[in-house]
Structure formats: structure tokens, C-alpha cells
Amino acid sequence: MEALFAVQDEDVVKGQLEHRRANLPERTAVIAVEAERAATMTQVQALELERLDYARRQHRYEGEVTAVEVRIIELNEKLYSGGITSPKEAASLQDEINHLLKRQDDLEGQVLEIMETLEPVDARLKELAEVAEQQDMAILEARESLKVAEAGIVDKLAESAKRRTEAVASVGSDLLARYERNRPTFGSSAVVGFSGSDCSGCPSSMPAVEADRVRCLPAGTLADCNECGRLVAR
Ligand SMILES: [Zn+2]
Known about the structure:
The chain is mainly alpha-helical. It is 78% helix and 4% strand. Helix 2 runs antiparallel to helix 3 (87-169). The protein is rod-shaped, with a radius of gyration of 42 Å. The site of zinc ion has 7 residues, from loops.
């Protein structure tokens, strides 16, 4: 009978250990740092998109600057090649060159503006990269702590399982089957003691007739309590 109580004790220990394993604060910590890391990644992606947009515009303006520069060189060559004889044509060419120089200036101003806008974006990206690196380290540490905590519980579960197996060896298969049948309903109090006048599993006192019935059974008998339904160890 003691062995059956020992089996029940180990089942209780197992339940507690599994509950602890499922609710480890170390697991919550891992989830928290992973969420922080994901939030950093979201920020980085948004900034990189913004950065890409600016970079494309910068590239386009720089291309236009190059085209304007080439055109200005061509016009200057034409103007000073000696082929232009009409002052009106020369003045018109000069106008066009002036216009292009102004355009070049505008474009270069825009490129500069983009570069200035990108400065804080790049600085923030650099900061976020450092944050991400720290968070990666924090994740590794948190995962390691979780692993250690889980391993500790797995060891305890194995010890408990070993003790249970030893106890089961001393319990008759019929008793064990009855205990297992009661366990889903009564959990940690599937089998209870008998005080001599009361089933310790009954919420209120055992009726006198039922108490007498159990008392009259030989010691070591496992009775079904008619009152609460638990197994009572006489
Ligand atoms: Zn009872």
C-alpha cells in the first residue's frame, strides 16, 4: 500500500515539474528578448527602405548632373571652336550654357540635400546595428539559461520516473490499474488514507455506515469510497 502512495507521490512530483517546465521564467525571458530583437529588425527594415528611396533619387540626380556637364562641354567647344560667326547665335549658345549651369547647380543642391537627410538615417542605422548585436547576445544568454533550467528539470523528472518505476514494482497490477483509472478524476488524491473513522478524501465526514464498512475490511485493502469515489487505503 505504501508503494502505491509512493507512486502517487511521484505522479504529483511529475505534474509539478512539468508545470514548472512549461512556465519557466527563463522561457518568458527568451520570448521577451526575441520580441525586442524583432522590433529592432522592423525599425531597420523601415529605415533601409527609406534609405533606398533616397539613394535612388540621389543616383538619378547625379546621372542628370553628368549629362548636363557633358552637354555644357559640347556647347563650350562649339562656342569657342571658331565655327560660330553670328553674334546672335553665340549669344543664344551662351544663354543655353548659362541655363545648363543653373540646372547643374540646382541638381547638385538636391544631391547635397539628400546626403544631409541621409546622415541621421545612417547614424540611426548604425545605432540600431549595435542594439541588434547586443540583443543577439542577450538572446544567446537567455537561451542558455533556459537550457540549463530545462536540463535541471529533465534530471529531476528522470529521478522521479526512476523512483516511480521502483515503487510500481511493489504494487500489484490490479491495484495499479484501479489507481490509474481514478487518477484522471482525482489527480493527486486518487488514493487516500483512512483515519479509522473517515476517508481523508471526502470533503465532509464519511457517513457512519460507510466508515464502518471500510473499518471492517482487512488492513491493506484498497476500498472504493462510496461517498467521494476515491480509493481508500484501509
Ligand atoms: Zn471518500
